[in-house]
Amino acid sequence: MKRRQIIIVAIIIVLAVAGFVGWRLLRNTGPKDTLTLYGNVDLRQVELAFNDSDRIDAVLAQEGDRLTPGQVVARLDVRRLQPQMAVVEAQTAAQSAAVDRLHAGNRPEEIAEARASVAAAQADAVNAGAHFARTRSLFGAADGQAVVSKQDVENAQDAADAATAKLALQQKALDLEVAGPRREDIAQAEAQLRASQAQLAVLKRELADAALVSPVAGVVRARLMEAGEMASPQRPVYTLAVTDPKWVRAYVGETDLVRLKAGTPAAVTVDGFPHRTFQGWVGFISSVAEFTPKTVQTTDLRTSLVYEVRIFVKDPGDDLRLGMPATVTLHLAPASAPGTPGPGR
Questions:
Q1: How many domains is the chain partitioned into structurally?
Q2: Contact 223/251 with Cβ under 8 angstroms?
């Protein structure tokens, strides 16, 4: 009797275990509404260096300091740059004044002076011509007795010719004063002004680059150089950790990839904050498959090919740190029916 009861109990236990195992198998093989991924917190890093090579004058930030965009974190010595900039500024101002003078043309007073010179030359030419005429008439007097010599006539003629030539010269000078500067001279002066302005802009850029500013909001991870050292574009002064955005780098298999799409809401937890959930969303899904990295943990190891997924996380308090292990829970879309295209296909 006891043996029969034992057999019955054993059969009941076997049936119960078989039913439970079957239920779990059916549950696991059916479509899942959620997907759990395991990854690590990742963020961008910036190596901050000067654009020019010179002696560092001051280093203003320490490891752990929080930086805002545009904040000055270091400065170069500019004592040699400032005098060069003063010289170029003076040259630019002088060339600008020369261009303005050429555009304005000659002053009315200068034109009036040229007109007066023409009038004086014209009077001299008239006088010289009259003197030459009188001298020539005296040399060829009717009574045959010349009052002046031939040499006097030639001298008077030369003086008249010289006065006429001087008048023509003064007239040309007046024409030039009225016409003003040549277009070629103005173009040359403007080109020289642009060259000076470009040189000044370069020096101003170098002066601005002497202040090293943070391009992003971040935290100083490492201070690599000190005041007095020679900076260069190849030597970073700081290494910054960008605090926004942050994401969890995880990997998903192909069977779950078809139900995953960008923008899917996610809940992220880390061991350091067991009672806190960070909200996030799927921001990047790789289009290229890769072999499962050794450090990756997945719930489905039946496939050796996975796709990288980045789950962006909201962390206003900057509590998450680089490399933290994280658990991501995603609510997946229902699986597509046979013959219907899945998401993103």
A1: 3
A2: no
Please give the structure tokens belonging to residue 121. Answer: 């030359």
Cα 149 to Cα 141, 154, 161, 173, 321, distances in angstroms: 12, 9, 19, 37, 116
The C-alpha R_g of the chain, in whole angstroms, comes to 47
CA 70 from centre of chain = 14
68 and 213 together in one domain: yes
70: left (phi over 0), alpha (psi -120 to 50) or beta: left
The CATH code of the domain that includes 295 is 2.40.30.170
Q: Is residue 20 a part of any domain in this protein? A: no
266 CB burial (10 A radius; 0-12, 13-18, 19+): buried
Tens digits of per-residue pLDDT, 156-177? 888 888 888 888 888 888 777 7
Task: Please name the amino acid found at residue 61.
Answer: A
Angle subtended at Cα 180 by Cα 177 and Cα 186, rounded to the nearest 5 degrees: 145
Q: Report residue 344's pLDDT band, with 50, 70 and 90 as the boundaries.
A: very low
Using DSSP's 3-state secondary structure scheme, residue 32 falls into: coil
**Residue range 179-208: average pLDDT?**
89
Range of the domain at 59: 48-76+209-238
